Amino acid sequence: MSFDLVFFGGTGDLTWRKLMPALFQAFRHGKLPGGGRILAVARDDRSDADYRAFIKERFSEVEPSKRPSDEEFARFAELLHYRRMDLSQPADYAGLKAWLDERGADTAVLYLATSPHLFPVICEQLGAAGLNGPKVRVVLEKPLGHDLASAQEINRVVRSVFTETQAFRIDHYLGKPSVQNLMALRFGNALFEPLWRRESIANIQITLAESLGVGTRGDFYDRTGALRDMIQNHALQLLTMIAMEPPSTNDADAIRDEKLKVLRSLKPFTAESVARDVVRGQYRAGTADGKKVPGYLEEVKVPAGSHCETFVALRTEVQNWRWAGVPFYLRTGKRLAARDAQIVVNFRPVPHPIFPGPTLANKLVIKLQPEDGLELHMLAAKGSGTSDALAPVSLDLDFDKAFPSDRVGAYERLLLDAIAGRLNLFVRSDEQEQAWRWVEPILDAWQRDGSSLKTYAAGSWGPAAASALVARDGCAWAEEQ
């Protein structure tokens, strides 16, 4: 299948840090379809050769195992092309259309790796130039809007130009192999599904922790914050995959219909419940990896006195028959004690213990990063002496070791899916808008009450209030258990 893949924002950080390395890995693995061209567009004046040299230089910054040899890059670079474009000029879109029509590839994927405020103007210009035919797909990078109103406006413009099946709203967490295994775990095996309900599960915790600070992105991050950056998209998508009902098929809309039902079943927030069930924090100076690091307000390009949150922990419930009364705890933050993304499913304890010693409930840990795998924690007899006491043990499955030759990165998988037209791992507009609808009362409450911001030391696990949040239910975060 021949394809043309066009990156708007072709010289931006996302393109050279994430997208080009992912495409190279697909090329290296032999998974990129033949007959493809990759076109970067941006405002700079560059030749194809200049752009290829730019990407080669940037590849020196990726991790060593993913860097191409000179021979590999020379072959990959044959796919790379560059065009100068002013995104507000219709003539430049006409020139792009002529470039694409000259060869007439089977499909054209237009990836908007730009600021979201440019999405409407780009889509309108694409439509005016006739770059919205049935062979065209548009990929929209997150964050899709800043709030519900802006998201709805972006979606209105996108729908006026493209059909829903042509629009690929990307959330790179959905491309992680471990996240894909959530579907396999639940709907490809008979083991857990009978237990996947309120009668057996005490609570579910989703943690997306980062040990790094905001670095040089202080101006961007201060306009976004942890709630918009991680909870509204990544964390809620994980929650829907954990909580959804079994879809009737593996079809994209069957899956996304069930995810939407979960979002619509989330307990809505009020001003009172935001104060009670949401913790908002900002890191101050501390120690990370044995080194002293500055607080958020001392970071580059962060405005003085900013109330931007770098940490969020919240409690919610899915109000349906399967999950009624089961707390879901979501947590994310920067400058935390470790880089750790995981989902912990805590099962209820046995109803009547018969063995001496402490009784520990079973738990399933779904590890997303830095490791990728599953841990099942249980109790077993020691087999030593005459004591009946049990000891904790765990079954540990490392997916990278189980499937060493088949693992692909998140962006690699999603780019290949966009080229192939597979929508299963992309977000539908009604999902995305419902997620904004759910978080908006939190944003509104914070706008009214700046005093809700807590502080926490860099290198810790966040404000003490986050531990108190789960302790109210007699629970503890995974690292405190």
Written account of the structure:
By secondary structure, the chain is of the alpha/beta class. The protein folds into two domains: 3-169, NAD(P)-binding Rossmann-like Domain (Rossmann fold, 3-Layer(aba) Sandwich); 174-405 and 439-480, Dihydrodipicolinate Reductase, domain 2 (2-Layer Sandwich), CATH 3.30.360.10. It has 14 helices and 17 strands. Strands 16-15-14-13-7-12-11-8-17 form a nine-stranded mixed β-sheet, sandwiched between helices. The chain has a six-stranded parallel β-sheet with strand order 3-2-1-4-5-6. A two-stranded antiparallel ribbon has the order 9-10. Helix 1 (13-28) links the parallel strand 1 (3-8) and strand 2 (36-42). Helix 5 (119-128) packs parallel to helix 6, helix 6 runs antiparallel to helix 13 and helix 8 packs across helix 13. The chain is globular, with a radius of gyration of 24 Å. It starts with a strand and ends in a 10-residue tail after the last helix. The model has no long low-confidence stretch (mean pLDDT 93).
CATH topology of the largest domain: Dihydrodipicolinate Reductase, domain 2
User: Main beta sheet, described?
Assistant: 9 strands, mixed
Beta percentage is: 15-25%
CATH architecture annotation name of the largest domain = 2-Layer Sandwich
| Total helical elements | 14
CATH homologous superfamily identity of the largest domain: Dihydrodipicolinate Reductase, domain 2
- In terms of quaternary structure, the protein is single chain
Cα radius of gyration in angstroms: 24 Å
Structural class per helix/strand content? alpha/beta
The CATH class of the largest domain, by name, is Alpha Beta
Q: Average pLDDT, to the nearest integer? A: 93
Q: Please give the number of β-strands.
A: 17
Number of domains: 2
Uncertain stretches of 5 or more adjacent residues:
none
The helicity comes to: 25-40%
Shape call? globular
